[in-house]
Amino acid sequence: MSQDAHAMHPETSTGLDSRKMAIWTFIGSECLFFATLISTYVVYRGKSLTGPFPHAEWTSPTGQVFEPILEIKLVTVGTALLLFSSLFVVLALYGAQHNKRGMLLGWLGATIMCGVFFVSMQVYEFTHFVHKGLKLSTNLFGASFFTLTGFHGTHVTIGVIWLFTVFLLALRRKLPPEKALNLELAALYWHFVDVVWIVIFPVVYLMD
Amino acid sequence: MSASAEQHEHEHPGPAIYLRIGLVLFILTAAEVAVYELAYHHAGSGLGALLHPIVIPILLLLSAVKFALVAMFYMHLKQDSKIFSGLFVIPIMIAAFIIAVLMTLFSYLYLLHPRPPA
Amino acid sequence: MATSALDHAPAHAHEKSGLWSWITTVDHKRIGILYGASAFIFFLLGGLEALLIRVQLANPEQHVVSPETYNQLFTMHGTTMIFLGVMPLSAMFFNYLIPIMIGARDVAFPRLNAMSYWVFLAGGLLLNASWLVHAAPDQGWFGYANLTERQYSPGPNVDFWIVGLQVLGIASLAAAVNFFVTIINLRTKGMRLMRMPMFVWMSLVTQVLLLLAFPVITVALVMLMMDRNFGTHFFIPAGGGDPILWQHLFWVFGHPEVYILILPAFGIVSEILPVFSRKPLFGYAAMVFSGCFIAFLGFGVWSHHMFSTGMGPFADTFFSLMTMLIAIPTGVKIFNWIGTIWGGRLEFKTPMLFALGFIAMFIIGGLSGVMHSSPPADLQQTDTYFVVAHFHYVLFGGSIFALTAGAYYWFPKMSGRMLDEGLGKVHFWLMMLGFNLTFFPMHFLGLNGMPRRVYTYPADLNFGFWNMMETVGAFVLMVSLLVFIYNLLRSVRHGVVAPADPWGGATLEWAIPSPPQEWNFAEIPEVSGRDPLWEWERARGGKLPEPQRVSGKGIHLPNPSYWPIVTAIGILVFFTGFIVGFPYVNIAGVLVTFIGIYSWAFEPA
Question: What was the pLDDT predicted at B47?
Fold first, then answer.
């Protein structure tokens, strides 16, 4: 049985590729992972005993005034980047499936760049917050914010590494159309990471 | 073990659709930020005042639409087998239930037993 | 990247014996045996912990062990029995049976399967390594905050618990993905979902529960670890945190977990009763749907573990109603089992005895469970021995009895020899006696006020007599287990040689030699209904001929690999880093894990 036939019509009970099913199963499980982190954030919203706060000003006992700590503009750029990266990766997948190597490499490279920028934005945001006086241990907001967005950022980083691995495969001409599933699996994971951010962005940054 | 014809995957959409969806996603994100700006920083009068009481439902709705678009078109759930949709939707429903119950229990709890001041 | 699981090495080229062949095995049957052997040893360890508990409690005001040691004993007993006993014993059956029952040669991802086992072993060893530094977890298997915070648990005990459970969680999640995809995707021709053996159905539902419940405790454990090591206040009131959040998150996991513990047992019993009643399972569809309903509802009842935390009448009522509701599908199953044996030609062989014992014991456990579902009643029962009675009836009288039934039932298939029937009956009756003597009195001790998790009790409370009886019962249980171990060890070498189908079974595993050849089936079978063997025997007018062993030429099997164990070692090292407190260890673990995963992914086909 040729590789081609196997990839297009796997001989499984459902006719679906087992690896694709595995990725979706994993994604379903991860929904509960992020749901728990989001629950914790939401349940502790407004319950921090001390500042700095996400959306409100705070005057410390020593009289120091803290602005609301979240910076919407920066994060909006990051959000847009992540959204565009989902577009880019699906264009890359199209290129992979239709044997357009330039399209595949170009858009996949763009996806990875967006991911790298997003993580950089988060690293900047985190260090900036620590400078401004918000650490993990400062208050409930710090704890739940850094944990939620930190785990998301870790997922993005893993996604970048995975996509980069696929990129190298493509570069070495090891990603013909029959093997496009290898990119599709990474892309599904990537879209999931994006979709989680679609929830986190308004819940954390836009809701007071 | 044989491929079951009914589960055959349909043709995925092309770049034109992807780009259009991308544009919609961008607009929806811009809308989210605009709603936020108006409702919280211009809540005094006009559109801001109107939006302020319903800002959370609107943001949730906008993000839900973005979520659905990425899931249906970029993750190909619209064209692919319903099994994949099920693998995504059912956990989401359970997740939503758990979040809702915890929110209720923790807000309700604190109405009954208010915290002493810090 | 490597493609399909079924790669191209000829079957006979694999190394068959020796330590290395076991370390690199990707054969689901071998992995099942590894799970079973390891789990049985951990089960005995948990039993030893129980015996020490019972010795300490035999008389009032004893000091056989210190209170601190006692706390470690009951914590490790619970944690061991749940995560290192019942779950991996179930995993033994998932691994061994599922591919054969659905007519496949192996699971969807054989190397991932191997990795799950090695990660499980790593978790069990990590958890028990704590004994070596006299710092076994001592905070209860449910780890309530803020007792578990650094302030009240300064030593590494809780840290061992956290990392041990995280490692075990990884094993469970990987296996759950694997078995879910295997069952959905690798069924043979004609094996529609509603024709699968009930054990496969219950296993499928269990995998779904694993996938949805474990992530919740993963996050909760992370948050607890952050409180203990990184200064957060998730569950620390002084920093605004709420210990009740821990309870919620734990039980959102914990309640589905108990269904994870019982559903495979339900499946095993549903396989055994029909065979020894010479009748098909009564109400197959109802059994499937009730299993699914139990799992689904199981996510809506968790706060029945929290009736004494002051959630308020609305919350109490909601969770009470949901809990009462879940008794309905459970009751359906019991009636269907009774319906299965009703009017059957019963054969009281050992597997059947344990399966019948399961029904009786589980009913008792279910009755005390339903009593807990009423919040006012539960306010008296909670944190007393009444609860201890309840969960031992469902977990021991339920899960362990069923797993034992499964052991007697499938031992001939796995080893090629029969276990001794006489010894089996001795085991059964001793276990029934010992089990009921140990746990039934706990019902009245609990209602008379004996609290849980106490290392001793005053003499004037009159708890002494029944406690002594319970300790006697525990030693009777020990004897019953010694009988079993003797039976196992003797039968493996000297037992009567088993045919392919010693019991007159209905499902595919009885159509292949005992023990099976590496590739399971000489030719992949096609089925056209439930109970395929009975159908074929009916068509033939008698028993099928003994299946022949074949050479395996031309059958493709997955290659062995050492990358699963390497990856498992990487994961172990990463989590050990949290115990020793050196970030370099964590980093080393991440590197080894990455090397393991990449090498695995790019391993030649």
Answer: 85
Identify the pLDDT of residue A6. 43
Same domain, yes or no: C572 and C467? no
Domain identity same for C415 and C529: yes
Instruction: Report pLDDT for B50.
Output: 85
**Is C299 within 8 Å of B108 when comparing Cβ atoms?**
no
Q: Which token pair is C223? A: 């948050």
Q: How open is the CA angle A116-A117-A121, to the nearest 5 degrees?
A: 120
Structural domain count of chain A: 1
| CA closest to C311 among chain B residues | B109
A91 is a domain residue: yes
Q: Are A36 and B97 in contact (CB under 8 A)?
A: no
| Residue A95: per-residue pLDDT | 96
C2 lies in a domain?
Answer: no
Query: C580 in a domain, yes or no?
Result: yes
Any chain A CB within 8 A of the CB of C542? no
Domain that holds residue C582: 559-605
Q: What percent of chain A has pLDDT over 90?
A: 92
Q: What CA–CA distance (Å, rounded) separates C221 from C215?
A: 10
pTM of the model: 0.95
Residues C291 and C311 in one domain: yes
**Given a contact as 3+ CB pairs under 8 Å, which chains touch A?**
B, C
CB-CB under 8 Å, B83 with C312: no
Using the predicted structure, report yes or no on whether residue A131 has a pLDDT greater than 90: yes
The verdict on a CB contact (< 8 Å) between A198 and B60 is no
Number of domains in chain C: 2
Query: Does residue C581 share a domain with residue C444?
Result: no
- Both C470 and C590 in one domain: the answer is no
List of chain C residues with pLDDT < 50: 1-13
SS3 assignment for C428-450: HHHHHHHHHHHHCHHHHHHHCCC
